[in-house]
Amino acid sequence: MNSPTATQPNLHRPHMPRHFTKVLVISIVLLGLCMIASLAFGSRTVRWQELIDGLFHPAIDSYGADVVRKRISRTVFGLCCGAALGVSGSLMQAVTRNPIADPSILGVNTGASLFVVCGLAFLNITTANQYIWLALAGAMLTAVFVFGIGSMGRGGATPLKLVLAGAATTAALSSLVSAIMVPRSYVMDQFRFWQVGSVGSGNWDVIGTFAPFLIVGLLLAIITAPALNALALGDEAATGLGVRTGLLRFVAAFAGVLLCGATTALAGPIGFIGLLATHVIRLLLGPDLRYVIPMSALSGAIILSVSDVIGRLVGSPGELEVGVVTAFIGAPILIILAMRMKVRSL
């Protein structure tokens, strides 16, 4: 009889997918181009020499170079948010075995929004640290609630039940958000700029607040990736391989909600990044989460950065918030995925 350890190497020993090196190199090149575009384009497009001066010649004091320097923190913040949302989406899809799971679809973003608006209305919150803890609490409670509702009845937490539970929860929480805001015009003024989702508020202080949550979430995601591969075989098979499925789901879901909640607190509820980033990587590299998770971070950073640049170009001389751009791109793709996959399990 084979021992449990004899069946585990195929799950835990790295087996590089085809074209991984090519996809990695292309992703890094695209990421670099996105960074350059984010620094160069906006309400004022800078010339190449101004870009060089802003990045490498701090002694040069010109308007174009100053614009580039101010955009650096926004660019870094956008890349961090995109990476966090990409990994969050891949974790939620793995935990729920739902190919269209995403923080925005499962109601996590809306739960974070409700707690933030409650903080604005009743607690007079004003700082990023206050936003982030309230948003995390709202995101985690909503995730537990949606999974609990989706697990009720025969068959447990099926993909279709989770999506329906997320949609119903989103509708209910959105109504509560409106009910709190409408009679309080000062809350509406603060909340409406945050609600659409934007990385324009990114500065080094905000990045410093965000960094610990991003690092912890990414580390947990990478640590749980091999066991999540086993979970994709089903709970019984995963248990037979020595995986503690309950603990694994909790840790992976916690990491996903941590990444999503922290991003939502500081940038607003930006939707569809996790869905798009993960599906692009699965299409290119296959289902192995040891590669899907880190590459989803790269893919999410690229998608959000491109969306931010598009928003600045389309809305010039102002800007169209990145949450609007990602929703415009992501909604039709979600419909196509739902029609083709018929909401089947991973």
UniProtKB/TrEMBL annotation:
<comment type="similarity">
    <text>Belongs to the binding-protein-dependent transport system permease family. FecCD subfamily.</text>
</comment>
<feature type="transmembrane region" description="Helical">
    <location>
        <begin position="289"/>
        <end position="310"/>
    </location>
</feature>
<keyword id="KW-0472">Membrane</keyword>
<feature type="transmembrane region" description="Helical">
    <location>
        <begin position="322"/>
        <end position="339"/>
    </location>
</feature>
<feature type="transmembrane region" description="Helical">
    <location>
        <begin position="20"/>
        <end position="41"/>
    </location>
</feature>
<keyword id="KW-0812">Transmembrane</keyword>
<protein>
    <submittedName>
        <fullName>FecCD family ABC transporter permease</fullName>
    </submittedName>
</protein>
<feature type="transmembrane region" description="Helical">
    <location>
        <begin position="106"/>
        <end position="125"/>
    </location>
</feature>
<keyword id="KW-1003">Cell membrane</keyword>
<dbReference type="Pfam" id="PF01032">
    <property type="entry name" value="FecCD"/>
</dbReference>
<feature type="transmembrane region" description="Helical">
    <location>
        <begin position="132"/>
        <end position="150"/>
    </location>
</feature>
<keyword id="KW-0813">Transport</keyword>
<feature type="transmembrane region" description="Helical">
    <location>
        <begin position="204"/>
        <end position="228"/>
    </location>
</feature>
<feature type="transmembrane region" description="Helical">
    <location>
        <begin position="162"/>
        <end position="183"/>
    </location>
</feature>
<feature type="transmembrane region" description="Helical">
    <location>
        <begin position="248"/>
        <end position="277"/>
    </location>
</feature>
<feature type="transmembrane region" description="Helical">
    <location>
        <begin position="76"/>
        <end position="94"/>
    </location>
</feature>
<keyword id="KW-1133">Transmembrane helix</keyword>
<dbReference type="InterPro" id="IPR000522">
    <property type="entry name" value="ABC_transptr_permease_BtuC"/>
</dbReference>
<dbReference type="InterPro" id="IPR037294">
    <property type="entry name" value="ABC_BtuC-like"/>
</dbReference>
